[in-house]
Give the backbone structure.
Amino acid sequence: MKELIAAWKRVDRNKLAAALSLIPGLGHLYKHHYLAGFGILTIGNVLIGFVSALMVFGTLGLSMILVPAAWIAGIAYSAYMASDEHGHHPWLHVWNYHWSGFFHRTGNT
């Protein structure tokens, strides 16, 4: 188990975010960009599907391949280049709190 934890700490988070972006939005969520991630997952993907479907007859079906491929590549690049906000949200990492300091300051025991 220790080897698995040690290997996980050496993972390049940028490459993993780009790989997770095969489902556009997951890479942004992985890097803790929640608004962008949920926006891409919901509105962005639906909009790209709609645009691809509208263009299908004019492009002889190529839009169903090329437009989503370009969308996924762009989102993967965006997730790769996004700043990593991991650890910047203390409310998501409650196991790191030192509750003894909280109780000591408030006088509760």
